[in-house]
Amino acid sequence: MTPEEIRTAFLAALAEVAPEIDPATVPGDAHLQDDLELDSMDILNLVTALDRGLGVAIPEAEYREIATPDRAVAYLSARLS
Amino acid sequence: MARSKREIPHYYLSTTLDLQPATDWLAAENARRAPAERLLMGALFVRATALAARAVPEMNGHVTDGAFRPAEAVHAGVVVALRGGGLIAPAIHDADGRDLDATMAAMRDLVARARTGRLRNSEMTEGTITVSSLGEAGADTLTGVIYPPQVALAGFGAPVRRPWVTGEEIRPREVVTVTLSADHRASDGRRGARFLAEIARLLQSPEEL
User: Fold this and answer.
1) Which residues of B touch A48 (CB under 8 A)?
2) Is the dihedral of CA A13, A18, A23, A28 positive or negative?
3) Which residue in the set A18, A41, A47 is minimally distant from B35, CB to CB?
4) Which of A13, A42, A80, B92 is 20 to 30 A distant from A4 in Cα terms?
């Protein structure tokens, strides 16, 4: 997958977890918890959606790697390559 | 909330407990689980509170017509923050009879439906005790307002690493402060302290929750 495809998949998973968020308006450096107000349940649901959609099971100790869309794309690209 | 503070003679008790055993157990458990099967600390808090409510029945029930009526079952209300503002506390029915995985599954389901406005009326009205948890971010203590006609709320602050004395040693440990808000018509401070001690005891053996 290209980084752009990964970003699209990540934002789709985010929209699934938080339907009131419009993926088109989320900046790449937006912090999921501090800026978008996702809580621990939302993050777990996002990680679950990424596992289902991309086949990447993110260990709990690495949740910080998906703290923003930009970081998530970099992390997921490395995991998928 | 205004009605709660006007009509319920609240009293408050807090205790700070060693959360390291639960933190370590949870990390090890989640490391070997697929994301869909993972647990959150909040599920341990709900489970411990439900079991403590069964052990100290003065915390579990309703005040109707000025008299406390203990409940047979433990229906644990879980406070859910709605993005865009507002709190609701739908209940997990028979929370004392569910194991940790079933409690976590019920919480996932409740949060998902709370966020999309698809809760059943019975879930909104049948809670017998409430659990409120700040999660990872936030303040050290949470002193909540009882949901009438209930008589108790267990508020969990954010878990934090703090110096902790064990024997003659000071060690860094993950700790959490739990605050009981209770109705003085249903219980007194002695029973309230017993309830908090029970939560603290249960969280020392997370594998048995």
Assistant:
1) 35-36, 38
2) negative
3) A47
4) A42
Query: Of how many residues is chain B composed?
Result: 209
> Any idea which residue has 């003659």 for tokens?
B168
**CA A28 to CA A66: how far, in whole Å?**
11
Catalytic, B184? Answer yes
Report d(CA B141, CA B158) in Å as an integer. Answer: 7
Please report the pLDDT score of residue B95 as a whole number: 97
Q: Identify whether the C-beta of residue B135 lies closer than 8 Å to the C-beta of residue B158.
A: yes
Residue of B87, B115, B118, B156 to mutate for A, most A C-beta atoms under 10 A: B115
Q: Which tens digits make up the pLDDT trace of B133-167? A: 988 777 999 999 999 999 999 999 999 999 999 99
- The pTM assigned to this predicted structure is 0.95
Residues of B in contact with A58 (CB under 8 A): 35
Number of other residues whose CB lies within 10 A of the CB of residue B119: 16
Of A23, A30, A63, A20, the C-alpha closest to A45 is: A63
- Determine the distance from the C-alpha atom of residue B29 to the mean position of all C-alpha atoms in its chain, rounded to a whole number: 21
Please indicate whether, in this complex, the C-beta atoms of A51 and B112 are within 8 angstroms of each other. Answer: no
- Contact yes or no for A36/A30 (Cβ under 8 A): yes
For residue B75, indicate whether it is catalytic: no
- Which residues, in sequence order, are CB contacts of B5 under 8 Å at separation 6+? B145
Tabulate helix, strand, coil % of chain B (nearest 5): 40, 30, 35
